[in-house]
Amino acid sequence: MIRAAFFAILSLSVFVGCAQKEPAKAEPTVIKANAKAKPLPMVEMLADFGIEKWEGNRSVDTVVVHTAHSVEGEPYEPKNVYNIFKKYNVTSHYLIGRDGVIYKLADENDLAHHAGVSKMADGRESVNRFSIGIELINSKIDYPTRAQYIALAKLINDIKTRYDIKFIVGHKEIAPTRKSDPWNFDFDELAILLETQKHAKEATK
Ligand SMILES: [Zn+2]
């Protein structure tokens, strides 16, 4: 009898325990507010070239990954890469150094000239209009560093809190006759990092 009562209380407490968890489940998760509270660390190196100011909210659903280096001076020096962009009047929104430091070159809402004549697999042209461009400092004879992959994944996950990103493409995918970058870039590695970081973030909530 005592034993039966004990089990009855035990199962009741388990049931109550489950029941108490229910309302918490139903509460909405506010990802955007959390992301805004902790801005991603980056260095501002804003470009006054290669940009078209955008009136109103630009709709963005694509991230274009590029690689670049400087042909003048130290090839992997961010400021030298910036100067090359200036010379050709082009820019991406972000530049990631070999050490994983993210440089902000343009506001996400502005159109940046990074893709040139380009076409998506779905037929849409002028990809600059609806994309954010990210350059990784690298050359054809090198590989992006681990720090760059990690920073790129963090940056894309951060961008995803502001835009509904449906496509992550390499420059050569959208301009195959003109471009060969991102050089020696592994999209599978990026995909794994994007998922791992997302889950790590969810686990710490
Ligand atoms: Zn490119």
What does this structure look like?
With 205 residues, this protein is α/β, with parallel strands linked by helices. The protein has one domain: Lysozyme-like (3-Layer(aba) Sandwich), CATH 3.40.80. The protein is built from six helices and eight strands, in the order ααβββαββββαβαα. Strands 1-5-4-7-3-8 form a six-stranded mixed beta sheet. It has a two-stranded antiparallel sheet with strand order 2-6. Helix 4 (146-159) packs across helix 6. The longest helix has 25 residues, at 2-26. The two termini are 44 Å apart. Residues 5-35 have low confidence and may be disordered. Zinc ion is lined by residues 66, 171, 179, 181.
The fourth-level CATH homologous superfamily is: Peptidoglycan recognition protein-like
Predict the CATH topology. Lysozyme-like
**Which class of secondary structure composition applies to the elements?**
alpha/beta
Q: Identify the bound ligands.
A: zinc ion
Shape: globular
Q: For the record, give the distance between the C-alpha atoms at the N and C termini, rounded to a whole number.
A: 44 Å
DSSP helical segment count: 6
- Profile the largest sheet: 6 strands, mixed
CATH architecture: 3-Layer(aba) Sandwich
Regions with pLDDT < 50 over 5+ consecutive residues? 5-35
The total of beta strands comes to 8
Strand content: 5-15%
Average of pLDDT: 88
- Helix and strand pattern: HHEEEHEEEEHEHH
Rg over C-alpha atoms, rounded to the nearest angstrom:
23 Å
Domain count:
1
- Please identify the top-level CATH class: Alpha Beta
Indicate the percent of residues in helices.
25-40%
Strand order of the largest sheet: 1-5-4-7-3-8
